[in-house]
Design goal:
This protein is of the alpha/beta class. Among the domains are: 126 residues, Beta-Lactamase (2-Layer Sandwich), CATH 3.30.450.90; 130 residues, P-loop containing nucleotide triphosphate hydrolases (Rossmann fold), CATH 3.40.50. Helix content is 32%, strand content 25%. The strands form three sheets. Strands 9-8-10-11-7-12-15 form a seven-stranded mixed beta sheet, with helices on both faces. The radius of gyration is 23 Å and the shape is globular.
Length: 423
Amino acid sequence: MSTFPSTTAANGSVPTQRPGSKQSSHDGVLERLTKLVPSSDAYATEVVDAILDFADAVGTSDVHLQPTRSGLEVKYRSNGVLQILGIFPVGSRSSIISRLKVLSGLLTYKSDVPQEGRVESPRHGREIRVSTFPTLYGERGVLRFFGHAREFTTLEELGNPVELTHLIRDSLDETSGAILITGPAGSGKSTTLYACLRHLVTHNNGARSVVSLEDPIEVPVDGVAQSEVDLAAGFDLKTGLRSLMRQDPEVIIVGEIRDRDTAEFAIQASLTGQLLLATFHADSAASAITRLIEMGIEPFLVRSGLIAVICQRLLRVLCSCSRESTDAADFCGIPLEKARVAVGCPACNSTGYSQRAIISEFLDLRRAELGPPILHRADSREIHRIARTCGMSPLGEQAIELVRRGTTSPAEVVRVLGSAARS
């Protein structure tokens, strides 16, 4: 689960970026790393410090450290896309992965099994999750950074259209039922979930009992009793959710629904007087419905328990260096007469993009028209068709509109939405 970069542009405007800021950070860390001495005892510590400082400067969500035949390849995720930082020596007297394992409390002498830990970093003001995995040339490490985005704390700041924000706020006023926030990994589900959570706390002035069970807790929220899954201690989602019901909750937050047991609990809780919010992996709002039914949740429970499904994606916004094109080859099969396409410059680290914009579907299950297709186990295409007649704006249409405005490119839309962008 990831967060948005600094500024969205769902209204079609291209957000500004400090000229050369990411490129400067990129070049700066490369210069810093190349000056380090691999035979030094402090080499691993210095490399880790440089990588953490770089991650903080560019606001990345993930850093990958992949051992290869020639060294340690370092990549970072920029606006949702992996970028190569470089390949660096592994160090002859100190291990970079071992240094990360020490910081995150993992067992340094175990290199043949996956491990997970965390780094509480007062220096960088956020939590870092560390995951290691054995590979052919040594242990691979992945760092996931939480708490980067500080701007997206409210529903209004997410960048959704005003009408959709009103729909979300209205659904959060319900006293029972479930709201699912869906999309693939890296689509900003957690950011939206936390914005909803803050709205619930501030809008009700602490008058509602709000509890959460997360894996992990990404951002602390005042006014919420947040708990974290601890598998090593036997505290899993199923155990935690059962216990939460004895805590007199009015609003329950589930970090992610991953299996039938969790899905069943979410629906049951929503039918017994609690408002429940959770993230869920699904390609579209309509497919979230069919996926729940395929997991074994009875259609009548889905129909009765769900208030709404929000499905979202993040599209990279073109940098100001983009150019206009009338070449059909640049349109990636999307019927257009012209569009802006990525070029690349130092300000965007030669990617052609800076920041991301959000697009969201809102499937309102309170609409009576959606009852029959759900109860009759209609497929996602039929539910999607009916939802459109009820006013839902599909992700594909929103994405194409951003292309027409010059906010993003056809290639980016196809990268994020695949063939659905052309239909």
